Amino acid sequence: MAGMDGGLDDELLFGPEDGAVTAASSQRPSGAPWPVLVVDDDPQVHAMTAVLLRDFDFDGRPFEVVSALSAEEAKAVLAQRPDLPIALLDVVMETEDAGLKLVRHIREELGNRRMRIILRTGQPGQAPERDVIVGYDINDYKAKSELTAQRLFTTLVSGLRAWRDIVAIERNRQGLERILSASAPLFEMRPMRAFVERLVEQIARVVDHGSAPAVLACRPVDRADGSRTIAVVAGLGVYSGRIGLAVADILSVGATAEVADALLTQRNLYHDDRCVLVFRTREHGVTIFRLERAEPYTADEHRLLELFCNRVAIGFDNVCLYEELVALNHSLEQRVEERTLELAANQKALILAKERVERALERELLARDRQRQFLGMVSHEFRTPLAIIDSAAQLLAMRAGQVEPEMLERLAVIRGSVQRLTGLIDAHLTDERLQTNALVLERAEVDLADLIDNVVRPFRVAYPDREFRMTLAGLPRRAEVDANLIGLVLNNLVNNAVKYSGLGEAIHLHGDTDGAMAVIEVTDHGRGIPEPELPRLFDRFFRGSGASGVPGTGIGLHTVQQIVHLHGGAVAVDSTLGKGSTFRVVLPV
């Protein structure tokens, strides 16, 4: 375009400085060219720019001029090629501010913040530098008069470096966003298999440039024969249908060796067209991921993959912990189910046992009722004949004393037997009343010595070969007791002493006073009672090992204890096996 204020023209704009600028390299670069958008309404500016940049290269790549003769034409170019890194933009074209309007279009309407925009004007007064720098988002301001070949190259290189750094930053930002968006759904995956399959999909997105990468996930597994191999657990692309196969059957020898080496060294391996990543966990072992794609992996992508691995590694541990929790929960559910079944079985058994106990209790109550009826019948039916026998024996004794004295001894035996039989009936009736709490004491003043003598007298007659020694002088003369019941107590104790001691062995009855208590002891020198049986001796129906062959019902001592307790007293026993026993009754007087 025409110069101003001194006739500056574009020929001078691109004249060389002191010392000619030569090509950066004698050998033509072979890389893809750097596209430079030149927006100017003067075709000669485009031609001179192309000539000047023809002999320059940067980072092994030449320059390529993309021309636009107006702002509108530049908009069309940018619509087709939004990735242009740098633009040399004239201010005055179809209008005096067409270049500045194009700057706002690029920054605000297209949202392109990466492109480096260098204003290059031949009329600085039309767009003052201070106003333009402050009011517009441009990166440099050059007058055509000062933009020599060397400065043009320097300006372009600075702009390209800035553009490359911005692109790298944006890629890293996008990579971080992809890491966050890819890892977030992974932490929601619970089963390990689903987690690995989803991880294969997400890891490809981290470095996805629009291509379709192939991803392989593999782990060491145990074979049925006991050996170990590296098998595919998930795949993407060409490996999507290879799950379960051995890596050696899918990859080449070199690729298989890379996987094995990564597994051994626990380190990631990076190459231009592939990456081998290692995911380590404390509980789940090691999983290897192999990524392949046509485009080379950059150092920034290596760092992104490292970051992704570190972030997702905790996901493996979480999934492992989740699987352990699921297993424990399943085990707990099984135990609860087993315990529930066991409790149900126990409950059923308890119900059956309860029914059996209820039936047994019903039978026992029925038996007790029948026993009461039987005892009532026996008491009624036996007492009358026994009374008749006793009366007849008394009459016979009165006559025999005058006519046949030798018959007195036999009649005494008959009367003693009647009394023992009557006592047996009384004992059972007393026990029955004790069990039903129907027994009522009929206390009266009793001479204990006379009571004991009356109890022993029938035994003397019935057992003339036994010696009954009595030392009763220490007893109180009077005691408030039920004579019939205490007589039953003494009868039981003397009867036991007779049954469990041998012929000719003496039975000793001793009476004494201990404060307000009367103490009566019945001692025999018989077989004695084993010590382990002493605690159960007064249990109802209990008969010890020494009772074998000796008639009895097992209720005598129980009845003794109950009657003594009703009187407010106590009963105890001292026994030595093979030497005899002493039963001690203590009664309040």
UniProtKB/TrEMBL annotation:
GO MF term list: phosphorelay sensor kinase activity
SUPFAM superfamilies: ATPase domain of HSP90 chaperone/DNA topoisomerase II/histidine kinase, CheY-like, Homodimeric domain of signal transducing histidine kinase
Family annotation (CDD domains): HATPase (cd00075), HisKA (cd00082)
Coiled coil: none
Domain Histidine kinase, first and last residues per copy: 377-589
Record's keyword annotation contains Nucleotide-binding: no
Keywords from the UniProt entry: Kinase, Phosphoprotein, Transferase, Two-component regulatory system
EC assignment: 2.7.13.3
Protein name, as recorded: histidine kinase
Lineage of the organism: Bacteria, Pseudomonadati, Pseudomonadota, Alphaproteobacteria, Rhodospirillales
Highest taxon above the source species: Bacteria
Key word Metal-binding present: no
Domain Response regulatory residues, every copy: 35-159
Catalysed reactions, semicolon-separated: ATP + protein L-histidine = ADP + protein N-phospho-L-histidine
Enzyme class: transferase
Positions carrying 4-aspartylphosphate: 90
